[in-house]
Sequence to fold (569 residues):
Amino acid sequence: MKKTLSTTSLGAVLLLGLLSSPATGQVRDEYGTTSQVRDEYGEIRQTVARISFLAGAVSFSRGDDPDDWQPADRNVPMTLGDRIYTGSRSRIELQVHGGDFVRLGSRTDFAALNLTDDTKQFSLRSGVASIQIRRLSESEIFEIDTPNAAVTFERPGDYRVDVDENGFTRISARSGGATVAAGGGQIPLYSGEAMEIEGIDAPRYDVVAFARPDAWDLWVRDRQDRRLRARSYRYVNADIVGADDLDEYGRWEQVRDYGWVWSPTNVSADWAPYRSGHWIWQDPWGWTWVSAEPWGWAPYHYGRWAVISSHWCWVPVAPTTRFVDYSPALVAFVGGGPGWSASISIGGGGFVGWFPLGPRDPFSPWWGDRARAGYSGGNVVYDNRTYVTVVNQNVFVSGGVVSGNIVRDRTVVSQFAAAPVARGPIPVVPTRDSLHVAVRTEAAAAPRPPAAIVSRMVVARTAPPPAPPTFQSKLAVIKENRGAPVAPAAAATISVENRGRPQAVTEVRPVVAQPGRVTLSPKEEGAGGAAPRRAEPVTAPRGRAMATSEQPGQARHRSGRLSIGAFRS
Fold:
């Protein structure tokens, strides 16, 4: 069945504004670095966030290899358990699947406590995070946990969260609204307000005035404006992040059968998709493509590719499509099947091959239920199978850059072009080299967060799931399952068994230390001498298990088929 893409423009876009800086105290430059001044104004599915921009020295620590700090890189997918730390005069932008943004300034420690379609929960132990939420359903949670407060965003809007050197928190809501929880109590924060939370064990709060925008806010606004100006979202579903990069690096044209399609410019005559970049291993998806091209996110994780008038074109997911799924790559691996030569077959010898899927091709995932069930798309004629890319298996597994290691031997390539399409898990077992995320050879050395920051706990309102198990502890399961990635529920079980107890990515303190006891208190009278806003006892966030002293987190990964299990401290 042919699908014609809609040319309808992207509907209403969330209007963006500047997030405020503190009324007194910390003001940040465009890297989010603080200076001390006084202003004149007193089946729930795991998902990813894309690293879409970075400047300076930024490091990345994987949840399944937490002691290894690597240089971060553009187009790397961040997921549950992963952590980012920015060095001095550094900054980074994350685009969350679904269209939300998180921008981090210098000396910021940020980790994904949970990252699913309906729960985005992060820890912020130091630095600054500006958050732009495009859409938030009644069943979704978006929470930022700091050393002395848990901030739950209640509506779409623009927010900023600062954590100072003492671990104290300031929350600003340029638009939207939030619930700020600390010391067993919670306070609403409305659009146009800011709140300061001081103290760790006996926190005090104050609703304060906005300050003038600082240089950090101006940089955030520039990035927001870039998204608003993106012409490509006339043709691409708004839930797909990364389409704002397409304007600069390619062109759109309307073609028969497919509607509006995009093609990259300034590429070589023999250019093909899924060649400039490398493969990494990331559970629960397994083999995942990381592009070295600055625009290489949306066209590699959503939509399909077709050769039209002798050049490659990306056929996007239409703006009218209701649900959009992230995929680690949209390719067909080849080389498997009965009777195929073991010296060439996928997983059995020296090479691995793949080709980009066309608009009408069925997709056989190598992860999840369909892969475990041996899903088969039947007899299919694939339009792009003659454009197969083949590399040595060692290059594939070790995260080698594909473009410089493509096999050109015509005999090998022709055999792969005619080989059966692999169904189910790809029987190529990863190694620790498969965990390397950076493509850039000139990437700066990865800075590490100071020990004082590493030792900080964060306050959580929502009970987070267990941290991912280490790669080494998963490897035996991956081998036993012939290259199948580890599902979230199985990973949580391994994690709890290996650690002896459930343990979140960042160590958490429950916002409710003792049921019914509220220690959160106001610092002084409200504006104009009015009584301060009253702190109410913390309530459970939208049907989730709340972090308490008896239940600081989940013992199992939450999904549509699993109940929430709590662990005891």
Observations:
- The mean pLDDT is 86.
- The domain at 24-217 is CATH 2.60.120.1440 (Jelly Rolls).
